[in-house]
Amino acid sequence: MFELTVREEFSAAHQLRGYAGACEKLHGHNWRVEIRVQGEKLNHIGILLDFKELREVLREVIAELDHRFLNEHPAFRTQNPSSENLARYIYERLAEKLAGYPVRVSRVTVCETERACATYFPD
Question: pLDDT (tens digit, 9 = 90+) per residue, 99-108?
């Protein structure tokens, strides 16, 4: 089994509805996203998937979130755009977009600061 990792960033604002503290107020982050994909078979030149191609797919997904008020995004109108929910959303969107590729998404980590991250992976 092989695993590839790529990282990207985006900027967006959010507020956590029902949170008892400062994060209930509108604020923003420079979010960092790390994704990992796994696969078993290398192609004829010895790679699982070109990092450039994987990064392009990730950029397509985070373009939907970049420089937005995340609470207005359709995925977060009824659930908070927390780091946890963002990680799950990105995971699900990547899984859709990579369906025809020789890899599967194994985990997505979203960091709102350098010291605070959440990771989503299926059971």
Answer: 999 999 999 9
CA distance 110 to 8: 10
Q: Return the ∠ at Cα 28 (arms to 107 and 121), rounded to 5°.
A: 10
Read off the CATH number of the domain in which 85 is found.
3.30.479.10
pTM over 0.90: yes
Question: What's the domain range around 104?
Answer: 2-120
Of how many residues is the chain composed?
123
- Catalytic residue annotation: 23, 67, 112
Q: Domain count of the chain?
A: 1
